[in-house]
Write a structure and sequence with these properties.
CATH class of the largest domain: Mainly Alpha
CATH architecture of the largest domain: Orthogonal Bundle
Structural class: mainly alpha
Number of domains: 2
Strand order of the largest sheet: 3-2-1-4-5
Mean pLDDT: 79
Distance between the termini: 38 Å
Number of strands: 7
Number of helices: 22
Largest sheet: 5 strands, mixed
Low-confidence stretches: 105-147
Order of helices and strands: EEHHEHEHHHEHHHHHHHEEHHHHHHHHH
């Protein structure tokens, strides 16, 4: 147990050590003051590493100090290191009245003990024999941490449930919308019959069943997989770079996939039949990412700035190569490259979903396994290394994961912009910086966003599809600019 003193947005907190009134309070309450173990005397500012190393099971604070940072959730958002302690993980933060805490007196060494001390609860007599009679505030007599803990669990459940329910609702809307309208009851009846339940009506249109299962559901499944992959890749990339404005294309995966797909189109490669272009795009995306990483690596280390600049250079070179391919190709090849770059889920098949889904599941699972390391990396590379994180190994692993997720997504549907940038940024504004919740919520939100975008792309113009990448850029560009303006107003400037 420790006692922390926090005030407002100063981004600093103090820990009370041995010989302080807080130390006397913790000892009298039967707790163990962690500060005595590390030899802390008086009140001193404590850094993130010291707090994580202390690993307190409970934290005492003044109630006004807790209010000044926006409560427990605001405290954990402002000081991410607290979330890495048992007290932060379980939200065991006990707020005490300021006046009551200030009434405590430090136990001075070498001074005779007074025969009687002031009782901690107003109007309560002290125990006889000079012993301290400790009565915590009424609010802490009950398990106060349980209420915020339950509130946080409900909030997390709501963050998962809201996009999940929205995803389910949009799946029904997307399945029933299009040139062939299918009512919801017929959609549910068709699903029930596929599960062996003789419940509900089947689609009345002669081609309704085929359209539902061979055209729309496969397209919806692909939208879910691609949207979740791009959003998780964006969240992981932002965690690796420590910048909420990073996106998967920074490491060249999208441009590399575009060059490889363009080469397959211009050269007429058919070594894998209809799978030739997706296979080339997937391999090109992975190869370009590895090239960017290899070029930016020096003396066994990779600096973030070098990685970004190398990615910019490789993206520029890839753009030039793609322009060259469009120049040497015929009219049909140029049109195919243009439409591939604009992105579309048209023509999605279950065989494509079966290939992309396992790659997406592996990538998302690895990203979730690295969530705690990403939280520690948010404290800074040096702090993360001191806390046992292999920063270079983590960066290599997550860049490979980002390349895998993005290459798998774009290989079958082309380039879909802004999903990997805007969705994680928007989700982080709601969930906070914790990567475990952020990654799961980003996957659900990314899937929901792409289903909505594809439904609009498929139904806005009769008998044709709007380019999906064009639509996401058209909406995501202005929205991202609004986020930048909002960040500028909040931070007081661009720097």
């Amino acid at each position: 147990m420790i006692f922390l003193y926090v005030r407002g947005q100063a981004n600093v907190y103090y820990m009370f050590g041995r010989g302080s009134g807080a130390d006397a309070l913790i000892t009298a309450a039967g707790g163990y003051d962690v500060s005595s173990e590390i030899g802390w005397d008086g009140m001193k500012p404590v850094n993130d590493e010291g707090l994580i190393k202390a690993q307190p099971d409970a934290i005492l604070m003044m109630d006004k100090g807790l209010e000044s940072v926006g409560g427990i959730d605001g405290l954990l958002d402002q000081f991410p290191a607290l979330a890495q302690t048992p007290a932060g993980e379980n939200q065991r933060v006990i707020a005490m009245d300021d006046a009551q805490v200030l009434s405590l007196r430090p136990a001075h060494r070498g001074r005779a003990q007074r025969p009687r001390r002031r009782a901690l609860r107003a109007g309560q007599p002290a125990e006889a024999g000079g012993e301290v009679s400790l009565a915590l505030p009424a609010a802490t007599a009950t398990p106060t941490a349980a209420v915020p803990d339950r509130r946080r669990r409900r909030r997390t459940a709501l963050l998962y449930a809201a996009p999940a329910l929205g995803l389910l609702a949009m799946t029904l809307v997307a399945a029933g919308s299009g040139q062939l309208q299918i009512p919801v009851q017929e959609i549910l009846g068709s699903i029930a019959h596929r599960l062996g339940l003789d419940v509900g009506p089947l689609p009345t249109h002669p081609r309704g069943e085929y359209t539902l299962w061979n055209v729309r559901f496969s397209r919806i499944a692909m939208a879910v997989v691609v949207g979740a992959s791009l959003a998780v890749a964006g969240a992981a990339m932002q965690g690796v770079f420590g910048n909420p404005l990073a996106e998967p294309s920074v490491v060249g995966v999208s441009s590399g996939a575009a060059v490889a797909a363009g080469a397959a189109i211009v050269l007429g490669l058919r070594f894998a039949g209809d799978w030739s272009i997706p296979v080339c795009a997937f391999a090109g995306g992975l190869a370009t990412t590895l090239l960017v990483y290899a070029l930016s690596r020096s003396e066994g280390r990779t600096e973030v700035v070098t990685l970004v600049l190398t990615g910019i250079a490789v993206n520029a070179a890839a753009g030039a190569l793609l322009a060259l391919l469009m120049f040497v190709g015929d009219t049909q090849a140029r049109e195919s490259i243009v439409f591939w770059r604009l992105g579309s889920l048209n023509g999605s098949r279950w065989s494509y979903v079966v290939v992309v889904a396992p790659l997406a599941l592996v990538g998302v699972a690895v990203a979730l396994a690295c969530a705690r390391s990403l939280d520690l990396l948010a404290l800074g590379e040096r702090s993360a290394r001191h806390l046992g994180v292999n920063v270079e190994g983590l960066r290599i692993l997550l860049i490979v994961v980002v390349a895998l997720l993005t290459a798998a997504a774009v290989s079958f549907c082309g380039i879909v912009a802004f999903v990997g940038l805007v969705v994680p940024h928007l989700v982080r504004m709601v969930t906070g910086p914790g990567h475990r919740t952020l990654l799961v919520a980003s996957a659900l939100a990314g899937a929901l966003v792409l289903i909505c975008a594809d439904t609009v792309a498929r139904t806005a113009v009769a008998y044709t599809d709007l380019p999906l990448g064009m639509l996401t850029s058209l909406v995501g560009g202005p929205f991202f600019f609004w986020l930048l303006r909002r960040t500028r107003r909040t931070a007081g400037g661009w720097a």
